[in-house]
């Protein structure tokens, strides 16, 4: 009886098991060059069990029931591909063949630093210097176009600048502690090894490796075995910031005995770029060595650096540009038949890392990195003692001042190095007492003191980092990430003599304040080449952070949550005791420790309408401690904290609709961000009035309690018109403005702190980027491996950065009577202080290229041209000068046909090109 029941059960179940036969589906992912694409993400729309392709590009799904399926295959810097297929009841294994991912536009992404000269000037506007930072290629059309087309014109998505971006190498943040910005020159020229980030998330999207900020996260994994086994040689010719670039890279792949090597080197050089007197010579090196002990354990050493020598270009007033043209640069002059630039940046800050990779069980990974970065960043400038300003564009040297004609200015429009040497040589030889000898006799020095010197402002940083990342799958659809970071910074900051320009020594005295000594503890007030002068101090900071994130994937929803907390301690230690009495007690020695606690949370919710359509929400709320530059209002002189400095509070939200079709890829997003309690510091030379009259002094200006709002919408699409012709379009419509009246303070050596009350800047626009931008492009990809493309770009709503002092009540208040100046009506004040808006601009770009496959050799050539129409009217950045800081002066300036203190501007460089040829095997 039992046997009969068993047979009946067996034959009854057979049809059902046959009907529900389950199938294994598999495929290989490869690139255009036929090589495997590892770690491509494969999303099965009908399941939560997504997979990742292995090292040979293989992936599979098991136990699929009969039906219609859709998968999306994606990897950063490749165009994602959607594959649809059917599984029938009679298939046990289904081969999808080879899925080819095309390289996305701009796969040769890297870093282009246009210039950073405003960071080493003291005439203001440091935040408004145009630079192109991280040119990273995202997965959608908007990110690609905003990086490579609009980004060439200093467009910043959502108005977010470098301060709010995060770049990590093996978990170690590359943001600088002094200003929070990323110095891309630390790995400039290493395009081959930084072309494909391990993770690239945009805006406030949560990251697996850090909490992130407003501007997204790029994570580089420099594991030697992660690089494709090949040799790559490349040469580039350009007129952007250098002329020539040569690169070579070799990756060995993993050997049988468990070793892998990747090395890369490059040089960028040239002295005939568009702007006069600009030249560059920069090397770069990279080495990664991995030892694999087992399938679960590897250790990797990474070392990289980019010694760079680069000349800067000056911002100029419109008067100067009208006379000299848009290529004019006031920072250089002729010496012995050669161009010599006074503003040279020499930076070399190599990084050394040791990373341990450990796999724990089936579902967990633990990665730990220790790193040490050391080096210096030196920026030169002319200095003078009891002499005239040698800047050719000093306002008294311009035709508007009435002493010279335009033709006379042209004759003396560059630095006169011969005159500087001559004036130093004309100083009589004198004997100076600089201390007491051990026998009690006066210690003296004899020679010619310098009127003019070339000095360098130097940062020597020593940074130790420890970064730990742990990830595990708690369930098939539930992932947990834990990140811990510790950083210790010791930053030595000083000014040193670089060149005495023919003199024997210089004075370490303050010529702007009765020749007081910068360091009264040292009786020797003379300095020679290599000696420190004027200021010397050390900043230290210890920073601890913990980040925990988790991702859960359901059939229709994907949910990510991320939280963090951090603690930091900062301190200043001065080496000089100032000769200015009001500063002496706070100039030398260790300051009190400033500690800061931060916390925040992020969330992301994705709703899968189907395999092609998604709704995505991102939200973030977090605090951000002040940087060292924000914390100390004038660290060169004293340890005073900036009045009212606080942690910033950031609240940001965005909502997107995303379509990933075979023909049309599209993203439409809206975003709303507020930044509260921020601090903005500017430093410049100004004329300031008080009850005793007026004074000329170097002003350290601070706005604290600043609130800003960023609101807007983004649209990006990529449509395949034909199998070989694509159209891309981008629209970014934003409004970035100040939403309150922050407090304004200043600090200078003569007057200590001064409070100016509130700045009337509510509804002023945030400067530094076009607030609206549009782009439309076409690209033809030939089946014969050549391509050509062009884009039309329109930029709108670019604004001039303002001087806060001019926007306070002190500007129109007579200090002698404390009443409003006569004639200072509200209407006139509003007219005088209105923010300048620049004209909208149209730019046209084009690019083309071809690749060749010759046996095992792959060769390619490409060329891109920006601003084909040579539009020289586009102002890429600028700032108001703060010299005219009271109503009578400002009114007089407004009535001049050519103001003495007009805004300083940078213009686009016109037609630029970049050509590249490579050979890989």
CATH A-level architecture of the largest domain? Beta Barrel
Q: Strand share of the residues?
A: over 45%
Number of strands: 50
Radius of gyration from CA coordinates: 31 Å
Molecular shape: globular
Structure at a glance:
Keywords: Cell outer membrane, Membrane, Signal. The protein is mainly beta and about 900 residues long.
Kindly describe this structure:
There is one protein chain. The N and C termini lie far apart (72 Å). The model is unreliable at 1-20, 105-122 and 124-138 (pLDDT under 50). Helices cover 8% and strands 50% of the residues. The chain folds into two domains: 21-101, Immunoglobulin-like, CATH 2.60.40.10; 116-385 and 454-920, Maltoporin, Chain A (Beta Barrel). The strands form ten sheets. The chain has a 27-stranded antiparallel beta sheet that branches. Strands 3-2-5-6 form a four-stranded antiparallel beta sheet, with no helix packed on it. It has nine helices and 50 strands. The chain has 921 residues and is mainly beta.
Describe this protein with a few key phrases.
921 residues, mainly beta, Immunoglobulin-like, Maltoporin, Chain A, 2 domains, 27-stranded antiparallel beta sheet, 4-stranded antiparallel beta sheet, 9 helices, globular
Walk me through the topology.
Elements: H1 2-19, E1 23-31, E2 41-44, E3 51-52, E4 58-64, E5 67-74, E6 81-87, E7 93-101, H2 141-148, E8 166-169, E9 172-173, H3 191-194, E10 199-201, E11 217-220, E12 230-238, E13 244-251, E14 259-270, E15 280-294, E16 297-305, E17 308-311, H4 318-324, E18 332-335, E19 338-341, E20 344-348, E21 351-360, E22 364-384, H5 406-411, H6 417-425, E23 430-436, E24 442-447, E25 452-475, E26 478-499, E27 506-507, E28 509-510, E29 516-517, E30 526-527, E31 532-553, E32 557-574, E33 589-590, E34 594-608, E35 613-624, H7 628-631, E36 648-660, E37 664-690, E38 693-720, E39 725-738, E40 743-748, E41 752-758, E42 772-781, E43 786-796, E44 813-814, E45 819-820, H8 826-833, E46 841-854, E47 857-866, E48 875-879, H9 887-895, E49 904-907, E50 912-920
Parallel strand pairs: 1-7, 8-11
Antiparallel strand pairs: 1-4, 2-3, 2-5, 5-6, 8-9, 10-11, 12-13, 12-50, 13-14, 14-15, 15-16, 15-17, 16-21, 17-20, 18-19, 20-22, 21-22, 22-25, 23-24, 25-26, 26-31, 27-30, 28-29, 31-32, 32-33, 32-34, 34-35, 35-36, 36-37, 37-38, 38-39, 38-40, 39-42, 40-41, 42-43, 43-46, 44-45, 46-47, 47-50, 48-49
């Amino acid at each position: 009886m039992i046997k009969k029941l068993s047979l009946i059960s067996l034959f009854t179940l057979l049809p059902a098991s046959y009907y529900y036969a389950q199938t294994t589906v598999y495929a290989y992912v490869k690139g255009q060059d036929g090589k495997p694409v590892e770690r491509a993400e494969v999303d099965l729309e009908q399941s939560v069990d997504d997979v990742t392709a292995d090292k040979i590009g293989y992936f599979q799904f098991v136990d699929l029931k009969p039906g219609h399926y859709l998968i999306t295959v994606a990897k950063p810097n490749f165009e994602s591909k959607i594959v649809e297929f059917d599984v029938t009841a009679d298939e046990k294994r289904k081969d999808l063949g080879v899925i080819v991912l095309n390289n996305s536009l701009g796969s040769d992404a890297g870093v282009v630093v246009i210039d950073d000269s405003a960071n080493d000037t003291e005439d203001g506007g440091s935040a408004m210097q145009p630079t192109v930072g991280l040119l990273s290629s995202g997965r959608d059309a908007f990110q690609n176009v905003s990086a490579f087309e609009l980004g060439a014109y200093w467009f910043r998505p959502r108005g977010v600048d470098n301060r709010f971006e995060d770049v990590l190498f093996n978990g170690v943040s590359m943001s600088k502690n002094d200003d929070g910005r990323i110095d891309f020159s630390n790995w400039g020229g290493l395009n081959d090894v930084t072309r494909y980030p391990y993770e690239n998330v945009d805006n406030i999207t949560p990251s697996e490796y850090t909490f992130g900020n407003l501007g997204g996260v790029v994570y580089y994994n420099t594991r030697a075995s992660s690089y494709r086994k090949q040799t790559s040689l490349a040469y580039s010719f350009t007129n952007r910031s250098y002329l020539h670039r040569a690169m070579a890279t070799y990756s060995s792949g993993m050997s049988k005995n468990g070793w892998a090597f990747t090395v890369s080197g490059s040089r960028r050089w040239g002295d005939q770029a568009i702007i006069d007197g600009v030249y560059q010579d920069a090397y770069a090196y990279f080495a990664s060595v991995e030892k694999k002990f087992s399938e679960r354990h590897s250790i990797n050493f990474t070392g990289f650096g980019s010694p760079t020598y680069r000349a800067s270009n000056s911002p100029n007033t419109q008067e100067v540009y009208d006379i000299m043209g848009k290529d004019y640069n006031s920072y250089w002059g002729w010496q012995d038949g050669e161009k010599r630039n006074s503003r040279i940046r020499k930076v070399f800050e190599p990084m050394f890392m040791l990373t341990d990779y450990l796999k724990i069980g089936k579902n967990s990974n633990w990665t730990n990195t220790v790193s040490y970065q050391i080096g210096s960043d030196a920026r030169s400038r002319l200095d003078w003692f009891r002499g005239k300003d040698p800047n050719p564009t000093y306002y008294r040297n311009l035709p508007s001042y009435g002493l010279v004609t335009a033709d006379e200015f042209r004759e003396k429009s560059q630095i006169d190095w011969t005159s500087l040497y001559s004036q130093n040589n004309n100083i009589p030889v004198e004997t100076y007492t600089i201390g007491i000898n051990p026998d009690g006799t006066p210690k003296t020095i004899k020679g010619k003191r310098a009127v003019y010197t070339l000095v360098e402002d130097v940062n020597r940083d020593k940074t130790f980092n420890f970064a730990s990342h742990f990830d595990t799958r708690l369930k098939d659809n539930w992932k947990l990430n834990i990140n811990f970071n510790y950083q210790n910074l010791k930053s030595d900051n000083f000014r040193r003599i670089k060149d005495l320009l023919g003199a024997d020594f210089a004075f370490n005295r303050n010529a702007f304040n009765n020749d007081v000594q910068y360091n009264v503890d040292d009786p020797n007030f003379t300095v020679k080449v290599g000696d420190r002068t004027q200021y010397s101090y050390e900043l230290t900071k210890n920073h601890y952070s913990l980040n925990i994130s988790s991702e859960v994937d359901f059939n229709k929803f994907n949910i990510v949550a991320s939280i963090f907390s951090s603690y930091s301690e900062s301190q200043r230690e001065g080496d000089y005791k100032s000769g200015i009495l009001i500063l002496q007690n706070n100039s030398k020695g260790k300051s009190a420790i400033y500690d800061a606690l931060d916390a925040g949370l992020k969330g992301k919710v994705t709703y899968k309408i189907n395999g092609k359509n998604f709704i995505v929400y991102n939200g973030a709320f977090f605090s951000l401690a002040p940087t060292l530059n924000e914390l100390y209002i004038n660290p060169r002189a004293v340890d005073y904290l900036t009045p009212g400095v606080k942690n910033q509070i950031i609240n940001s939200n965005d909502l997107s609709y995303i379509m990933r079709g075979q023909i049309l890829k599209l993203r439409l997003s809206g975003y709303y961000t507020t930044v509260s309690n921020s601090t903005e510091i500017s430093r410049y030379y100004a004329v300031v009035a008080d009850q005793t009259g007026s004074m000329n002094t170097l002003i350290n200006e601070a706005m604290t309690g600043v609130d800003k709002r960023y609101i807007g919408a983004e649209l990006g699409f990529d449509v395949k018109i034909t199998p070989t012709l694509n159209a891309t379009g981008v629209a970014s419509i934003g409004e970035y403005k100040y939403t309150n009246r922050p407090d304004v303070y200043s600090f200078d050596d003569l007057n200590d702190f001064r409070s100016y009350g509130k700045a009337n800047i509510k509804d002023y626009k945030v400067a530094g980027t076009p607030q609206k931008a549009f782009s439309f492009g076409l690209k033809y990809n030939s089946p014969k491996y050549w391509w050509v493309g062009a884009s039309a770009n329109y930029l709108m709503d670019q604004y001039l950065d303002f001087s806060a002092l001019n926007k306070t009540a002190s500007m129109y208040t007579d200090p002698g009577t404390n009443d409003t100046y006569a004639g200072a009506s509200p209407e006139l004040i509003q007219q005088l202080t209105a923010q300048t808006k620049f004209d909208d601009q149209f730019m046209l770009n084009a690019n083309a290229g071809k690749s060749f496959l010759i046996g095992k050799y792959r060769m390619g050539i490409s060329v891109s041209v920006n601003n084909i129409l040579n539009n020289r009217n586009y102002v890429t950045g600028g700032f108001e000068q703060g010299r005219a800081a009271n109503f009578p002066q400002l009114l007089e300036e407004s009535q001049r046909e050519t103001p003495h203190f007009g805004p300083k501007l940078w213009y686009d460089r016109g037609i630029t090109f970049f050509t590249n040829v490579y050979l890989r095997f």
